[in-house]
Design goal:
The protein is α/β, with parallel strands linked by helices and 255 residues long. It is 36% helix and 29% strand. Strand 11 (215-220) and strand 12 (223-228) form a beta hairpin.
Length: 255
């Protein structure tokens, strides 16, 4: 049990009174990468937002545990301070706020204390060099005029600065061409260690060619209906979701 970093127990999540996640059990141990795959409207992004504590996504039953602590009722900033991070599918632009100022403010919020300028600048340069990001990138306004690939690289840069213990990537491959996907995936891989965990939420298998999962789970109608190794993602790529989801749907309506 001590090696379990993140866990959901019988998690039920509702949005505007409608139940979307319907009893989800998941364990992520330190050093593991888990992938959540599934067709559109299966509950993937709802799960990601509920884990991070978005107030619109209400947990009606079950628990979210992180490092053995029940964080179900904690606010998003409290979860972030404990080492939880969400990379958004559609990051928002914030004109007038530079990346460097945003990153330093975020780091201060997570640490709970100010970061000396010299220390932060050194950390930022080292992280950008590791992620192969030009230093001019930090002087730009957050996601303002960014391409899809630049937005996702900005999310990975945040991961590099905040050094979360558990990262959730919500369809980070969405809208990326193959070169941008490879660059973003290399950055993600460089931040993964034996002490951290990662949950990769995706509709397609292609990101899993680069960020290789230890476990793959198929989410359908708010439930995990099948789990396996990386070969499951390859099976879904070859055959699609219909065979697996069709069988699950038939079981739900069977008397």
């Amino acid at each position: 049990m001590a090696n379990i970093l993140f866990q959901t127990k019988d998690l039920h999540v509702s949005v505007d009174g409608k139940e979307i996640v319907k009893g989800l059990d998941l364990k992520v141990r330190r050093g593991e990468v888990h992938a959540i795959m599934g067709p559109n409207a299966s509950g993937k992004s709802t799960l990601a937002n509920a884990i991070m504590g978005h107030p619109q996504y209400r947990v009606t039953q079950g628990k979210i545990l992180f490092k053995g602590e029940d964080i179900t009722n904690l606010s998003p900033d409290e979860r972030a301070r404990r080492g939880l991070f969400l990379a958004f599918q559609y990051p928002r632009a914030i004109p007038g706020v530079t990346m460097v100022n945003f990153l330093r403010t975020a780091l201060r919020a997570v640490r709970g204390s100010d970061v000396p300028v010299r220390e932060f600048r050194s950390m930022l340069r080292e992280t950008m060099a590791m992620l192969k990001i030009d230093e001019d990138f930090a002087r730009r306004y957050i996601n303002d005029g960014f391409s899809g690939g630049e937005m996702k690289r900005a999310e990975v840069l945040q991961m590099g600065i905040l050094q979360p213990d558990m990262s959730i990537l919500d369809e980070t491959d969405s809208g990326l061409d193959i070169d941008a996907l490879r660059t973003v995936a290399e950055g993600v891989n460089s931040l993964m260690t034996k002490d951290r965990g990662m949950l990769v939420i995706t509709h397609y298998q292609r990101i899993l060619n680069y960020v290789q999962p230890d476990f793959v789970h198929v989410l359908f109608n708010g439930r995990i209906i099948k789990s396996g190794g990386r070969e499951l993602a390859l099976e879904l790529e070859a055959e699609g979701y219909e065979r697996i989801t069709g069988a699950a749907a038939a079981e739900e309506v069977a008397p």
